[in-house]
Amino acid sequence: MSTTGMAPTDSMATTGRDHLLAHPLVYPGSGCSMPMRADIEDLALHRARRGYPVLTGPAFVDALSGSELTGRGGAHVPASWKLNAARDSGPGGIVVINGAEGEPGSAKDQALLQTRPHLVLEGALAAAEAIRARELIIWVHESAEATRASLAAAVRERRDELTIPVRMLLAPEGYVGGESSAVISAVRGGPALPQHSRDRARPWGDGPAVLVHNAETHARLGLVALGGNPVATSLVTIAESSAPLNFTRRTVIEVPTDLRFADAVAIAGAPEPQAVLLGGMGGTWVRWSDLAELPIDPWEMRAQGLSLGAGIVHLLPQGRDGLKESVAILDHLAAESARQCGPCIFGLPALADAVRRTAKARTAKGRSSEETQRISDLIAGRGACRHPDGAIRMAMSAQEVFGS
Amino acid sequence: MRLSIDPVACDGLGMCAHQAPDVIELDPWGYPVISSEQLEGAQADQAQRAIRACPRKALYASA
């Protein structure tokens, strides 16, 4: 087994410039309590390990533009595009740390917010300075008590050096409340529901920006500000479950770009799966035999037509039925619809039913696959957010991997 | 012009499909499926009528 996935604690103590975590963090069960063996960087430890920001304002923007950092929430939009669009919208905007992870299989953002709150704040404050924002908002679930406590303590520690107000805003439970257009709406006092944007490059519309990144992206902006390399590693959550969506253990691992999926699963101590749902509920099923030897490198994966999405490696154990698993996930996604857009309200249950029929009558494969395809074509791209498109991607890949 | 839709505002009332039968089809649930093509002539006229007819103001012209 390779152990290169773990940043050595010794070098972490001396540099810490390119790394987020010191060792894998394990969350037993599906809750938001602190991980086992948590190693929490308070402000003194953060400064001792990582120093002070060396790149601010225009120097920070230049370093980011040269860095190839993409957002780690799923869409992987270059972080410099969003920052530049936000700067062009003028001063007085808002930077948001989106801590409302809606994927039940993910734990990487809560791991960072709980154990590396100052690295996340470092990135958010550097972005705020670069776009001359007036406020930093932390968007986090009310139920995430350990996360809220850790962030509140970190903000208190920085009280005397903050130049803009920082406040916490509580997100409603559920999947779409963490979608970025829903976050933009909520911080402006609107409903925490996805909104239609007429200009995808400026989802906040006219006026000052609302720049939203998840915790990992902010932590990586922090690495940029501290003079490190933000793309030397990726964060993944190896998600093990005892039944569909009943997660029993989630292991957050920081992986260098040459680590293979087989190595990451071995580090997590998980048995080899039959297949992996890569990226989260709206991700892509991949046979383990096609994935095991592949390096966890976002660029290499893109070349193979794959995406890490939100970094979730959802393991399907040997002996479980992949189509039934997919139907359970589709039912969940249908129930999590914000119920705003017709193609999502009506299309997702129809999609779930089509895959359910394939699962029940595998002999009629041809007909059912066509039905899934037909519904997918009908609803693709027709929601205000990408929720239905993720469901389609998952359903089509399920038919492909488990349909025969 | 191109025709665009705000799917959050749309309630599937279906007025648009009557005004612009050559541009808009309704899906099985009554929500409009809109051509993403550049519209000209009679099709553009239909699209403008559909924009005016929508009680939810969910349709708009874009470049």
Care to describe what's here?
The complex is a heterodimer of chains A (404) and B (63). By secondary structure, chain A is an alpha/beta fold. Chain A has helices spanning 9-14, 43-50, 57-65, 79-88, 108-115, 117-130, 145-157, 180-187, 215-225, 261-267, 288-291, 298-303, 322-335, 342-360, 365-379, 387-402, and strands spanning 25-28, 94-98, 135-141, 166-171, 210-214, 233-243, 246-256, 275-278, 284-287, 312-316. In chain A, the strands form two sheets. Chain A has a six-stranded mixed beta sheet. Chain A has a four-stranded parallel beta sheet with strand order 4-3-2-5, with helices on both faces. In chain A, helix 7 (145-157) links the parallel strand 3 (135-141) and strand 4. In chain A, helix 5 packs across helix 6 (117-130), helix 13 runs antiparallel to helix 14 and helix 14 packs parallel to helix 16. Chain B has two helices and four strands, in the order E-H-E-E-H-E. Chain B has one domain: Alpha-Beta Plaits. The longest helix of chain B is centred in the last third of the chain and has 13 residues, at 41-53. Chain B has 63 residues and is an alpha+beta fold. In chain B, strand 2 (24-26) and strand 3 (32-34) form a beta hairpin. Chain B has a two-stranded antiparallel ribbon with strand order 1-4. In chain B, strands 2-3 form a two-stranded antiparallel sheet. Chain B has helices at 15-19, 41-53, and strands spanning 2-5, 24-26, 32-34, 59-62. Chain B starts with a strand and ends with a strand. The interface between A and B is medium-sized, with 17 and 16 residues.
Largest sheet of chain A: 6 strands, mixed
**Percentage of β-strand residues of chain B:** 15-25%
pLDDT below 50 for ≥5 consecutive residues: which ranges of chain A?
A: 1-15
* Count, helices of chain B: 2
- The top-level CATH class of the largest domain in chain A is Alpha Beta
Largest interface, counted by CB within 8 Å of the partner chain's CB: A-B, 17 and 16 residues
Describe the strand arrangement of the main beta sheet of chain B, using strand numbers: 1-4
Oligomer: heterodimer
SSE string of chain B, helices as H and strands as E = EHEEHE
Q: Could you state the CATH homologous superfamily of the largest domain in chain A?
A: NADH-ubiquinone oxidoreductase 51kDa subunit
Cα Rg of chain A: 21 Å
* Helix coverage percent of chain A: 40-55%
